[in-house]
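To illustrate the input format used throughout this study, we show a single complete record. The first block contains the structure-token representation of the backbone; no residue identities are included at this stage. The design step must infer an amino acid for every position from geometry alone.
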């Protein structure tokens, strides 16, 4: 499972390389990036929920990296 999370994290990071100031001139790429952003946000949300179930809420929210993941997922849904 952790390999899949690392794979999705890497793919999400690579996806950011395609966003530039000329993105509005490439509507197909822009649509694909929007769709992929939704897919990644949902995947990371599911990963966050599974981690909360596995660790318990108290232990999840006391770990720095888990809290950082939580904030990143919240921001990804807010944008």
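Output of the design step:
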């Amino acid at each position: 499972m952790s390999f899949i999370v690392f794979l999705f994290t890497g793919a999400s990071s690579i996806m950011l390389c395609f966003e530039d100031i000329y993105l509005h001139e490439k509507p197909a790429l822009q649509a694909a990036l929007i769709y992929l952003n939704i897919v990644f946000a949902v995947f990371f949300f599911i990963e966050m929920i599974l981690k909360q179930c596995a660790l318990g809420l108290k232990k999840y929210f006391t770990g720095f990296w888990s809290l950082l993941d939580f904030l990143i997922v919240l921001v990804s849904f807010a944008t």
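Structural context for interpreting the output: Residues 2-78 form one domain. The chain has a mean pLDDT of 91.
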